Structures are given as C-alpha cells and as structure tokens.
Amino acid sequence: MNDFFIYLRLGFDHITDPSGYDHILFVVALCAVYTLRQWRQVLILVTAFTIGHSITLALATLRLINYRTDVIELLIPITILITAVANFFVQEPKSRLFDRPVTSQSRARYGLALLFGLIHGMGFSNYLRSLLGREADIVQPLLAFNIGLELGQLLIVSAVLLIAYVALEILNLRRRDWVLIVSGIVAGMALSLIINNELISG
C-alpha cells in the first residue's frame, strides 16, 4: 500500500510540476473558455481528456504500443498551441443565464480533448516507465500514477475556474478579453516550446 501512495504522489507531482509545465498549459487552454457555472461541461471535457491519456498511458507503460519519444515531445506543445488558438474562435454565449457554448463547438472540443489526451498519455508514460525500471508488477503503480494525475488535473482545473470567476465576476473583466489574454499567453508559451524543441532536435 505504501508503494501505491508513492506512485499516486509521483503522478500528482508530475502533472503539477511547474518545471514541466506543458501539461498544465494544455489543461489551462482547455478550460480557458469556460466559467465556474459551466462546471458540468468542464467535467465532460476533462473526462474526455482523461479517457484519452489513460488509454495510451496504460498501453505504452505495458509496452503494447511503441512510439518515438522525440515525436511525442514535439506533438505535445503542438496540441497546446492548437487548443489555445481554437479558443480565439469560440463564440461567446449571448445569455449569461444560459451560459453554454454552441453544441457543435462543444462536440469538437470534446473530440479534440480525447484525441490530444492520447498524445499526452504517451508523454506521461515516458516518465512512468523511467520510474518503474525493471519492476515486475506494474499494474498497481500504473493505477496509482493515473489517479495521481487526475487529482493534479482537478486541482489545475479548479484553480483556472476560480481565477476566471475572480476576473469575470469580481474584477468585471469582459469574458472575451479573458479568453484572449489567457489563450494568447498559452499560445505564446506553446510556440516557444515548439521552437526550443526544434532547436534541440536539430
């Protein structure tokens, strides 16, 4: 049981680690267009991302799929950039009472979250496999690590929605401005990661 909590903590620390902020940026980009009152839609979105990264995290950790690490390390910031740029085109709800994005946009975002989750899961597996080494029983560490990832992810989502609440409801920032500011910052950081990745690999 001690090992379970060790890997749970490692999963939590991995996704919330400021020095490895690529996954944090992706979650921020996913949630940037939502408000606290839209928590149900955010829950669906995060669940789609979770399903995606859980699948490839398990398959890659169990060595049922193979991939090039350098390709995944490049694809992850690309998913962040695409998600952030897509935020620029999200239509703002006409009514604050029924604060819901357009259905077609919602479906597209859920699909992207699932697809990009597959890519991020392979990124998570790189770290987990380095921790496991030659350990024989990897099912329990895999489960614990994944739960840790989810707890960290929920913490990030909660922080983003609470900051959005303060910005929109207390500071009276226009919602469109909030989305553009947050998404613009994330897009710039993602672009920097892509350029740095290319310079290192080149």
UniProtKB/TrEMBL annotation:
Keywords annotated in UniProt: Membrane, Transmembrane, Transmembrane helix
Protein name as catalogued: HupE / UreJ protein
Tagged with keyword Magnesium: no
Taxonomic source organism: Fibrisoma limi BUZ 3
Pfam families: HupE_UreJ_2
The UniProt record lists the keyword Membrane: yes
Membrane-spanning parts: 20-36, 43-65, 71-90, 110-128, 143-166, 178-195
